[in-house]
Specification:
This protein is an alpha+beta fold and 493 residues long. The protein has 2 domains: 348 residues, 7 Propeller (Methylamine Dehydrogenase, Chain H); 61 residues. Helix content is 18%, strand content 35%. A 5-stranded mixed beta sheet has the order 2-3-4-5-30, with no helix packed on it. Strand 8 and strand 9 form a beta hairpin. The protein is elongated and about 110 Å long. InterPro entries: WD40/YVTN_repeat-like_dom_sf, WD40_PAC1, WD40_repeat_CS, WD40_repeat_dom_sf, WD40_rpt, WDR55/POC1.
Length: 493
């Protein structure tokens, strides 16, 4: 067991969201933390205690997923409003909207090279986008229920996805085919991700389980049941030696994958923990929950001497040693219960961070802005609906929001005004406009599908006509051959 000095400690406590924190991700340079919430806002927290935080407004419903690009220049977010947004994480608040899903977007994730984005949705599809071209590329469509999560492998050649059909699927991005399916789940599969080497995937379920699979041998390596309720999110440590998980049992658990056992149980959230994420360097991790809290922890346990620890493990005598990630299927199930001597950590959350960061609100959504407000803020042509490409209905909306320098300093830390008060638009009119926009989206997608089917019909008809012409030509050749044969035989005697 680790000593007290090596235990994780709570480093920061961020307050700013007004509803459940549903997702979190660190920037690659370890200077920012992005969180999404049921309050429809995206927060960018600067990890420097004296820096301001940014609140981005634009999504029309709950934000369900967030992910920094590898360069840190973009932040992707998904929402229950069926859209994906790409944000510039600075005071300008620029965003681009991607539309192709027809239901809640549950997951967004960049590829390692930052060129592609993979999204998962309640419309039972996984979609891949081109980030540079801002274009929808293709769909993966074999799930039979809501898709909860999708992730690229580190080399970008595979996509892992999971969902309410109780399956975890592996896809080949070159052929766009499902190459493997894991079905060993007693309920919906809630989250999936690759380890840093790309040789294994971990998946969690509503049945409280966490499983690690070797995708080279298609074998179950480790199986944990350390939570007493559904696991909502997890994250691999960059070293591949640890994994953190957040659950509806209000705890964060840390598992040592080398030892194959639970080592820490962290308390601090008052309600389900919905999001956990390691920083890119592994020295920090964040957790968010239904209590609106964002907690940032320092991973002191990572200071362990790995060589010494592995040497100690080799000397240990046990009839059934737990498997390493590169091992094959364990000889017996490893179900870890509460009696394994884990460290319980109960931080005093209220005393950790006395002064909350100054919050600057950016990214005002043009749909809720009056004409006068748009003119004052420099917003022009707020919604664009370009034509679809390759028969798919993809809508990209470019919005540019700028705050005056003087106004930035006068903004108070805290409460976002209600949308009705800002816009001066009646709820009935706004609801009607939202309904019209939704119907236009559906109509656009229907037209795209009809165009695609019409193209297929034309191709089939052209193929039939070509075949008919070939058959007629063959028949004419046969008739001419018969005539020549009869002419050569001469008249009958």
């Amino acid at each position: 067991m680790a000593s007290v000095l090596e235990d994780p400690t709570l480093a920061r406590h961020f307050k700013g969201h007004k509803d459940a924190v549903t997702c979190a991700d660190f920037s690659p340079n370890n200077k920012q933390l992005a969180t999404g919430s049921s309050d429809k806002t995206l927060m960018i927290w600067n990890l420097n205690p004296k820096s301001r935080a940014f609140r981005f407004v634009g999504h029309q419903d709950v934000i369900t997923a967030v992910h920094f690009s590898p360069s840190g220049e973009l932040v992707a977010s998904g929402s229950r409003d069926k859209t994906v947004r790409l944000w510039t994480p600075n005071i300008k608040g620029e965003s681009t909207v991607f539309k192709a899903h027809t239901a809640t977007v549950r997951s967004v994730s960049f590829s390692a090279d930052g060129q592609r984005l993979v999204t998962a949705s309640d419309d039972k599809s996984v979609k891949v986008w081109s980030v540079h071209r801002q274009k929808f590329i293709y769909s993966l469509n074999q799930h039979t229920n809501w898709v909860r999560c999708a992730r690229f492998s580190p080399d970008g050649r595979l996509v892992a996805s999971c969902g309410d059909d109780r399956t975890v699927r592996l896809w080949d991005t070159s052929t766009r085919l499902c190459i493997n399916t894991f079905t060993d789940y007693g309920g919906p599969a809630t989250f999936v991700d690759f380890n840093s080497s790309g040789t294994c995937i971990a998946s969690s379920g509503a049945d409280n389980t966490l499983k690690i699979w070797d995708i080279r041998t298609n074998k179950l390596l480790q199986h944990y049941q350390v939570h007493s309720a559904a696991i909502n999110s997890f994250s691999f440590h960059p070293s591949g030696n640890y994994l953190i998980s957040g659950s509806s049992d209000s705890t964060v658990k840390i598992v040592d994958l080398l030892e194959g056992r639970l080592i820490y149980t962290l308390h601090g959230h008052k309600g389900p923990v919905l999001a956990v994420a390691f920083s890119r360097g592994g020295d920090l991790f964040a957790s968010g929950g239904s209590d609106c809290q964002v907690l940032m922890w320092k991973t002191n346990f990572d200071a362990l001497n790995y060589r010494e620890m592995l040497s100690r493990h080799r000397k240990r005598v046990t009839p059934d040693p737990p498997p390493h990630l590169t091992d094959i299927y364990p000889r017996s199930p490893h179900v870890h219960l509460a009696h394994n001597g884990t460290v319980e950590i109960n931080p005093v959350v209220a005393d950790v961070h006395s002064a909350h960061p100054h919050v600057v609100e950016v990214g005002e959504d043009p749909f809720y802005t009056t004409g006068a407000d748009r003119h004052a803020s420099g917003i022009t042509d707020p919604r664009e609906y370009p034509s679809t490409s390759a028969g798919f209905a993809s809508t990209f909306t470019h919005t540019h929001h700028h705050e005056e320098a003087g106004e930035e300093e006068n903004l108070g830390p805290g409460v976002t005004d209600f949308q009705d008060e800002r816009s001066g638009t009646s709820p009935a009119l706004r609801s009607t406009l939202e309904h019209i926009v939704q119907q236009l989206d559906i109509l656009t997608q229907t037209v795209a599908v009809l165009e695609e089917r019409l193209t297929l019909t034309e191709d089939k008809l052209r193929e039939c006509l070509d075949n008919q012409a070939v058959i007629l030509e063959q028949m004419q050749q046969q008739d001419e051959s018969h005539k020549e044969t009869r002419g050569a035989e001469g008249p009958a005697v």
